[in-house]
Amino acid sequence: MKNTDEIIEKYRKAGKILSKVRAEAAKKVVEGASLLSVAEFTENLIREKGGEPAFPVNISRNDEAAHSTPSFNDKSVFGKDMVKLDIGVHIDGYIADTAITVDLSENPELVKAAESALGEAIKFIHSGVNTSDIGGVIDDTISSFGFKPIINLTGHGLAQYIQHAPPSIPNKRMPHGVVLEEGDIVAIEPFATNGGGKIHDAGSAEIYHIVSDRPVRHPSARALLQEIGKYKTLPFAKRWLGERVDFAIVQLVRAGVIQPYPILKEIKGGLISQAEHTIIVTQDGCEVITR
Ligand code: CO
């Protein structure tokens, strides 16, 4: 289905808000600052500028790749970390998605590897390009720095209220790809590591999403479901729901109504850097809406 001009304008508006928010948020990431203060600052700024967070701000450190966000009353602070901020804004469900690495760990080459891979991929994209070849460009660029891409994380398409829609944009060459067409809206997100090049689920979750509209009987679970309905199919943070929601959350997970996003970590404990932009594919290139 083709996006109308009106819809494309909503993506662009989300992207414009997001690029300003990313710049402001990155400045807040300093040694000793609390993760919770950065998350709340970022999410509030999105709302102030007329958008909504498309998902909880992901603040992933060091060997964490994604799905880490502070808990309610979280006390953790930044140290000499490699920090990834992954931020999303939506306007009526139309999402722009971006990520930046703020390096407090003194590993500039690793950051450059992910950023260069994103830059090369953006230069390479045009209508008719195969996603497998984009993966090849990303892999080749990261490898040229002596690092590895994270091969089981990918970029992705975006659709209304769906932040991971097809097609996936691999971070290495694949046997089969998909041909991108003019008007396709996708997020390109290379991850680079000095570790093994893969991530695994590391348990513990602060981020969830609704996966079924099956009825629930327990009153507290029902009340919570009513509250989270406004997020539709988008991810939400447990900390957005107040302090005493653990029981209701467990009930909703058991009933198969919501699912957690476990934190993803590098298999060998390697440091991970990330860069991400959302783009609209054009006839002879692409328009970066989060620059
Ligand atoms: Co993304």
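^ cobalt (II) ion complex. The mean pLDDT is 97. The chain has six helices and 18 strands.
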